[in-house]
Amino acid sequence: MAKPLREGLSLSIESRSKEGEQDYERLEGAFSVAHRPEMEEAAVRLRRLLKTGATALSEMLDVETPELQALLVADEDWNEAPREDAHAYPLGLPYFTRSVRPPALVLPIVLSPVFRPHTESTYPLAVWHELAHAFLLQRDVVRTPAWLREFVPQTASAAVTLRVELPLHEHLSKIERKPGFTIWSLKGHADAERQMAFQNLLLLLGAAVLEEFGERFLKRLAHALWEERDVVNEERAEELLADALGPGGRAWLRSRPEFQEG
Questions:
Q1: In the chain, where do the E strands start and end?
Q2: 53 in any annotated domain
Q3: How many structural domains are present in the chain?
Q4: Is 22 helix (H, G, I), strand (E, B) or coil?
Q5: Suppose 7 and one of 3, 71, 159, 182 were both cysteines; which one would form an S-S bond, judging by CB atoms 3.0 to 4.6 Å apart?
């Protein structure tokens, strides 16, 4: 039986739609997925992606799967979705929020056009990226530079994609490899286009790391981040990643065009 979004998810969301237009059902399972009745097929696919990603991430990071729910949101309901901020996130951009209990992954039916390239791997990568954030944030993580904060979920999502044999290399081949900046360049606010280019640069670096060093470094890096107690600056961030990679890690990183300063 369909329930209003507020009742179905126990969320403090004001309904601004006509009666019956904002009713959501819950697809039960290891991860419950709330969805509009007409979105059931997409909800089943999302639950499958979450299950696949959670199994892989739990193994990779050697950590329990966090308690989590997912909300598959129709465009017209996007402004009513749970969030930390007063203003809604841009339409079509998935995010993870701890503003509700259990924490929620908020996902659109269709990703924003800013997500490029558009391939078979695009939507799974986006889902697993947000899921990786949820895994990391089930424990305290100190503030880190933007590149390290986003590198971990980007690389983890790439690792899941490789595990399930989605065509990641085809996706990577369509990414602009010379965006005119490196991972050190993003400081402060950036528009959506630059953010996407930044994320793609991290995905390229993450895929290269996985090819060179394998996925085991992700466990070492995640656990090292959980053990940090002070704010991580740029120098410490590089040190953490290099140590997680192991012998030759620092030299290899500095040889990569995505990692070079300036």
A1: 3-4, 23-27, 32-35, 69-73, 95-97, 104-108
A2: yes
A3: 1
A4: coil
A5: 3
